[in-house]
Write a structure and sequence with these properties.
The chain has helices spanning 32-35, 46-54, 64-72, 103-110, 146-149, 155-167, 215-288, 301-312, 339-357, 394-403, 426-430, and strands at residues 16-20, 23-27, 43-45, 128-135, 150-152, 178-182, 187-191, 196-199, 205-214, 292-295, 328-337, 385-392, 420-423, 447-456, 460-462, 488-491, 507-510, 516-526. The protein is α+β, with helices and mostly antiparallel strands. Among the domains are: 1-126, no CATH class; 289-526, Phosphoenolpyruvate Carboxykinase, domain 3. The strands form four sheets. A six-stranded antiparallel sheet has the order 5-4-9-8-7-6, with helices on both faces. It is rod-shaped, with a radius of gyration of 52 Å. The two termini are 99 Å apart. Residues 54-117 and 122-126 have low confidence and may be disordered. It binds zinc ion (3 copies). One zinc ion binds at residues 78, 82, 84, 191, 193-194.
Length: 527
């Protein structure tokens, strides 16, 4: 048990000053290592050490005078957060002078905790290393816990202060005794004279000290602290990134929604414009008794819907030449307004309506082509009015738009008679579209034309085989002419063509051109 050489007090619970290797060292406790090496007369309690220092005891400290001045006469400019601005000692009351000092009493009187805040560099040759610590008063400020409340600084902070120490730790009263360091996440103002640090963000002031500590334990504690800090920083970064990512997602969702609204608006505007144009075209067509074709804009909603509908009208299991639909791309659209063809067509509609009145159980025929391709067409289901495709070439397209479909121009060798052929399967229409192979070379331009037509199928006959000689609609009952004639012929998939072949696509044949009205001319190419 070390005792103070001067006053004989047990120095166990206070700071112990030891004269060792020509300098004073300061410890919380005298360790066994030092115990054997130090003479008892070189052990002082802090109170006696301080009194001795007033009596010009030789202390080889870096700034012996400043320490003395600092502890006993704090400079007036020190602020209220500084330990030296309080408890200014009245030396006449110092119990230490009577040789009856108590380490705790002197410490309280002089507020000399800072005495032990310097450890000298001589300690480096021992198993101790010099580290910087701060007093964590949050963890219970009572004396019993004081040793535990000194916490190691982070390694970064420790290195900064150690470097400053190496450069010269100026404690003279006249010096600028404060400087700033950047620790982990915070800036600190360091008061080198009073051994205080002030957190510039929170304003909290804490005591600091430089002490000898067991090397590995301290390093570990500092490393752990550093790692904890890094972990917290990382967690904060991850949280921030998550938030940014979420914000980005929200933003792109908003952008997508706006784009959609913009598109819908454009389409509705274009749709409206087309409608107005169509009305005007019909009016002019009536006046001039001539056809008018409205060129539809690429942005028009009809454009995209027709491209989509024509692709859907290609049964996906159709291979061979039908695969050309893979490269099908609409490049032009015209809406046909032709009053003279329309009048004939309307007249035929009326006729077929009347003829069907006397017939019962007329089979319903529907086209697979979606209604959207001609949304304005008010189809009459009772007379099997459907939207279908007629594949053809440019010159015939112009004739049809001007004069309508003409059964007299039909090929004589048509498999189901000499009529006008339609289909609801786009891959079939390709065969007649002029872009027969879709190569885009030589005589084959790689472009072609479809006419989307509304057709009155009326009472339709299902072909059971080829009808090559047929020139007009077949009779409903060959034995009874009074029962009238069919209005069209349907060749369904699977109808035997000859001993070996069967019909692959569905085709519709009319024998009167007035049974069809060309609604739309589709110009396409193979991409
Ligand atoms: Zn003493
Ligand atoms: Zn101060
Ligand atoms: Zn096909």
């Amino acid at each position: 048990m070390p005792t103070c050489f001067k006053c004989g007090t047990d120095a166990i619970d206070g700071e112990i000053a030891v004269w060792c290797k020509g300098t004073w060292k300061f410890f919380q406790r005298l360790t066994q290592v030092l115990e054997g090496q130090v003479e008892p007369r070189h052990i002082y309690c802090s109170g006696c050490w301080l009194v001795c220092s007033i009596n010009d005891l030789d202390r080889k400290r870096k700034h012996p005078e400043s320490v003395t001045n600092n502890q006993l006469t704090p400079p007036a400019r020190h602020g209220s957060g500084c330990g030296n601005s309080r408890g200014h000692p009245d030396s006449s009351n110092c119990t230490a002078r009577n040789g009856a000092c108590s380490a705790a009493a002197v410490r309280n009187l002089l507020n000399v905790q800072t005495l032990s805040n310097f450890a000298t560099d001589d300690c480096k040759d021992s198993e101790f290393e010099l580290v910087w610590e701060y007093l964590d008063s949050d963890r219970g400020a009572n004396a019993a816990n004081r040793n535990q409340n000194w916490q190691p600084m982070t390694k970064a902070m420790n290195d900064l202060l150690e470097k400053r120490w190496a450069d010269g730790w100026d404690q003279s009263p006249d010096s600028d005794d404060t400087f700033y360091v950047r620790g982990t996440g915070f800036d600190y103002c360091i008061d080198s004279r009073c051994m205080l640090q002030k957190n510039m963000s929170t304003g909290r002031i804490r005591q600091i000290r430089r002490v000898a500590a067991r090397a590995d334990a301290t390093r570990k504690a500092a490393e752990v602290k550093q790692l904890m800090q890094e972990k917290e920083d990382l967690i904060a970064t991850v949280a921030k990134m998550k938030q940014l990512f979420q914000e980005k997602e929200d933003l792109s969702a908003k952008v997508a929604k706006l784009e959609q609204e913009k598109k819908a608006l454009e389409a509705s505007q274009a749709g409206h414009a087309t409608q107005m144009m169509a009305q005007e075209a019909w009016r002019v067509s009536r006046q001039l008794r001539a056809k008018i074709c409205i060129q539809l804009n690429h942005r028009d909603a009809v454009f995209a819907s027709i491209q989509k509908a024509l692709l859907e009208a290609w049964p996906s299991h159709h291979i061979g030449d039908c695969l050309r639909m893979n490269r099908f791309s609409v490049i032009g659209l015209q809406q046909v307004c032709n009053t003279s063809i329309w009048k004939d067509y309307e007249y035929r509609k009326e006729q077929v309506r009347k003829e069907l009145e006397g017939r019962h159980s007329i089979p319903r025929v529907t086209s697979t082509l979606p209604r959207e391709v001609c949304s304005w067409a008010d189809l009459d289901e009772k007379i099997n009015e459907v939207l279908v495709i007629h594949g053809t070439t440019l010159d015939k397209t112009e004739q049809i738009a001007a004069f309508g479909f003409d059964e007299r121009l039909a090929r004589e060798k048509g498999l189901y008679g000499q009529g006008v052929y339609f289909t609801d399967q786009s891959c079939k229409a390709l065969q007649y579209s002029g872009a027969s192979k879709g190569k885009g070379s030589g005589k084959d331009p790689g472009e072609g034309y479809f006419i989307i037509a509304r057709v009155i199928l009326g009472h339709s006959m299902e072909a059971e085989g080829p009808l090559q000689k047929t020139k007009v609609e077949p009779p409903v009952d060959p034995g009874d002419p009074s029962k009238g004639r069919f209005h069209s012929v349907i060749a369904q998939k699977g109808v035997p063509i000859d001993a070996l072949r069967r019909q692959i696509h569905r085709e519709f044949v009319i024998f009167n051109g007035a049974h069809a009205y060309p609604e739309m001319i589709v110009h396409f190419k193979f991409s």
